[in-house]
Structures are given as structure tokens and as C-alpha cells.
Amino acid sequence: MNTLRAHIDALDEQVIGLLAQRHALIARAAQIKKQIGLPARIDDRVEEVVANAGRHAALRGLDRTLIENIWRQLVEAAIAQEDRYLNGDRP
């Protein structure tokens, strides 16, 4: 069990690293959106991102609904991050 737990912990660290990279990309997206006058929330894009995550999950044998729910939370957090930037509250 200890070895298995260590592998899980290592994967969790990698996932966090990927989320940090995503966070940085969202910050860049907010800068671009501000320059060209786009809002933080673009509903079609939200649905596209969630559908992509669900499709990738299903291809890997994961619960599509679970992953889509997680991704909706992730996307909502990204929109909030962009909103803060667009409203002048830079991270």
C-alpha cells in the first residue's frame, strides 16, 4: 500500500502542476480578452471545453459525467479568475 500511495501522491503533484500551467494560460487569455474586448464568459466555449473533457474521459474509460462536472467547476473558477483581471483586480 505504501508504494501505491506514493505513486498516487506523485500523480496528484503532477496534476497540480498541470493545473498551475492551466492557471497561467487563463491569465494570458484574460489579457488577450481585455485587449480585444471579450467577456470572461463565452458560453459556447464553456460547453466546448466541458464536452472535450467528457469525450477524453470516456475514451479513457472514466465516468464522463463525473469529469464533466469537475471540468465545469474548473471552468467556473477560470471565468472568475478572468473576471477579476478584467475588472482590474489582477492576481
UniProtKB/TrEMBL annotation:
One annotated GO molecular function is: chorismate mutase activity
Identify the keywords attached in UniProt to this record, alphabetized.
Isomerase
Entry-linked Gene3D superfamilies: Chorismate mutase
Q: How would you classify this enzyme at the top EC level?
A: isomerase
Q: Which Gene Ontology BP terms does the record give?
A: chorismate metabolic process; salicylic acid biosynthetic process
Domain Chorismate mutase span(s) in chain numbering: 1-86
Q: EC number(s) in its UniProt entry?
A: 5.4.99.5
Q: Which organism is it from?
A: Paracoccus subflavus
Q: Which InterPro entries match?
A: Chorismate_II_sf, Chorismate_mutase-related, CM_dom_sf, CM_II_prokaryot
- State the protein's name: chorismate mutase
Q: Does the keyword Transit peptide apply?
A: no
